[in-house]
Structure formats: structure tokens, C-alpha cells
């Protein structure tokens, strides 16, 4: 009969490491749930590849998918980005400075479609 417990010498699974780090930093339980879920979605999106073996291209692909295909709001994009930053910086100890300054996909699209100030094309006073 297989045991559901990991071997005593094996390191904790990645999502367990995320949970442990969130708890160590005294984040709320809702933040723990959200960050763990975003990490899980990121891993599943890339066919169960370990995040340590992924980089900028895979993170950009996931965030772009959320914005363009799933059409999530900018606050949802922010939450996903924060969760991935946490995963890489706090859990995997990989710094991602380029991601911190990344704009939302919809903002980038609006700039391309409407020029420098998307409010002008929408008839909103600047």
C-alpha cells in the first residue's frame, strides 16, 4: 500500500514551500491561497515544468495569456504578477528585476492602438 506521506529525507514540494514561506512572513491565509493557486496555474500552464527551469519568456507568456486570452482585469494581472515575483524571489531565491517594472498587457495594447494617450481616442478629457 502506498503512503501519501513523502519520504523523510525528501525536500518539501514546491507548493508546500510557497505555503511555508508565506506563513513565515505572516501573510494572510487568503494571500497564501491566492499565491499558491497562481503558482499552481503557472506550473500547469507550462505542462508541469518546474519554475526553476523557466525564465522570462515563460513568465511573459503566462501573464500575456491571462491578459489577452483570458481577458483578466488589471488587478488580477497584478495579483498573478505579485504571486510569481514572490515565488521566484522568496521561494526559489531568483531575482526578477525586469518583471517588477512590467506594464499590464491591456495598457500596452491601448498605447499601441490609440497612441500615447488612450483617453483622447475614447473622448475623455485629458
Structure, described:
With 126 residues, the chain is mainly alpha-helical. The protein has a single domain, classed as Tyrosine recombinase, N-terminal domain (DNA polymerase, domain 1, Orthogonal Bundle), CATH 1.10.150.130. 62% of the residues lie in helices and 0% in strands. It is built from seven helices and no strands. The radius of gyration is 18 Å and the shape is globular. Residues 109-115 have low confidence and may be disordered.
Strand residues, percent? under 5%
Order of helical and strand elements: HHHHHHH
Mean pLDDT: 83
From the alpha carbons, calculate the radius of gyration and give it in angstroms: 18 Å
Give the count of structural domains: 1
How would the global form be characterised? globular
* Number of helices, counting only DSSP H or I runs of 4 residues or more: 7
List low-pLDDT spans. 109-115
Q: Major β-sheet, in short?
A: none
CATH class: Mainly Alpha
CATH fold title: DNA polymerase, domain 1
Structural class: mainly alpha
In whole angstroms, how far apart are the ends?
68 Å
What is the total tally of β strands? 0
State the CATH architecture: Orthogonal Bundle
What portion of residues is helical? 55-70%
CATH superfamily: Tyrosine recombinase, N-terminal domain
Amino acid at each position: 500500500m502506498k503512503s501519501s506521506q513523502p519520504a523523510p529525507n525528501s525536500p518539501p514540494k514546491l507548493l508546500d514551500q510557497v505555503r511555508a514561506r508565506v506563513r513565515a512572513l505572516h501573510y494572510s491565509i487568503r494571500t497564501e491561497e491566492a499565491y499558491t493557486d497562481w503558482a499552481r496555474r503557472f506550473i500547469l500552464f507550462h505542462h508541469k515544468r518546474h519554475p526553476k527551469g523557466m525564465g522570462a519568456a515563460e513568465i511573459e507568456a503566462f501573464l500575456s495569456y491571462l491578459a489577452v486570452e483570458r481577458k483578466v482585469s488589471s488587478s488580477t494581472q497584478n495579483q498573478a504578477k505579485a504571486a510569481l515575483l514572490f515565488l521566484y524571489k522568496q521561494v526559489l531565491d531568483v531575482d526578477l528585476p525586469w518583471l517588477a517594472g512590467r506594464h499590464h498587457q491591456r495598457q500596452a495594447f491601448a498605447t499601441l492602438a490609440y497612441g500615447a494617450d488612450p483617453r483622447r481616442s475614447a473622448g475623455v478629457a485629458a
